[in-house]
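Dear colleagues,

I hope this message finds you well. In preparation for our joint manuscript, I am sending the Amino-acid N-acetyltransferase (Frondihabitans cladoniiphilus) sequence together with its predicted structure, so that both groups work from identical material. I would be grateful if you could confirm receipt.
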Amino acid sequence: MASESKGTTARGPISVRRALASDVPHIQRLISPYVAQRILLGKDNVTLYGSIQQFQIAVGPDGVPIGCGALNVFWDDIAEVRTLALDADWIHHGVGHALLDGLEGAARDLGIGRIFCLTFEVGFFTKHGYLEIGESVVSPDVYAELVRSSDEGVAEFLELARVKPNTLGNTRMLKVLPVV
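The corresponding structure tokens are as follows:
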């Protein structure tokens, strides 16, 4: 993933960096309100520790994590932005934008050309060039490979019946990253 990036918001300087294993309690704290509202799926600590390398963390001026997000690679040219969550006090202060920019940079670093998300925040992702999609964005042979995955995010991406109750009302969106 891309290295640390810094920015300034109306509330002071923030930075976005790769997550550390010691950030897992902060990730749980950040996602808990969204899990309670059924906006995000909950994740056990063992799952978060096992996928910590996918996460980036936004840190506020006092050094405390104020946001998180992950990039999960599905296939050779597509990945998913997942578990994007902010501390409620930092919503509308540019933190989500900084995290998404960092995750998209990480995708470019990995040679990923398309990013998928499943979201209730359509306006936010639209501002970043994501478009609503309805149909599958992978070929039938890739679909046949992906359907074997036990990852719930992949199941959501494929719209498998076993996960539809968890995602009812979410919008499927996709962004094609510009070639640089």
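For the figure legend, we might mention the following. The chain has seven helices and eight strands. The helical segments are 24-36, 45-50, 95-109, 122-127, 140-146, 152-158, 164-167.

With kind regards,
E.M.
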